[in-house]
Amino acid sequence: MNDKIVNHLISNNVLIPLIEPLLIDSNVATRINKGTSYGLKLALKYINKLKLNYDNVYALKIDIKKYFFNIDHQILLAKLHKIITDEKLFYLINHIITSSDGKYVNGDIIKAQKN
After folding, report:
1. Dist. CA 74–CA 98, nearest whole Å
2. Burial per residue of 72-98, b for 16 or more beta-carbon CB atoms within 10 angstroms, e otherwise
3. What pTM did the predictor assign?
């Protein structure tokens, strides 16, 4: 429970205010006021625009398994370091992100065992 409180505190008060202005409008994943209805409205807008120029329009809906867990932490940290200027804050966020390294199995994180 304590981890969730710290994660939400940092997310809501640090990361969202820093990252939100950098995102494109059509990125609707887990953003305030950009939920399913907003995403559907945008999708329909783009489909209708495409239908003006093309006879057939196809959409591919996919779900990448464990997408967020599989993000390369070094790339993520390098990008965050460019926008987080406070070194102590970056150290804390770095610690949170790298602490989730491990093998992800059925919703549980299992740390790699030493041989």
Report:
1. 9
2. eeeeebeebeeebeeeeeeeebbeeee
3. 0.65
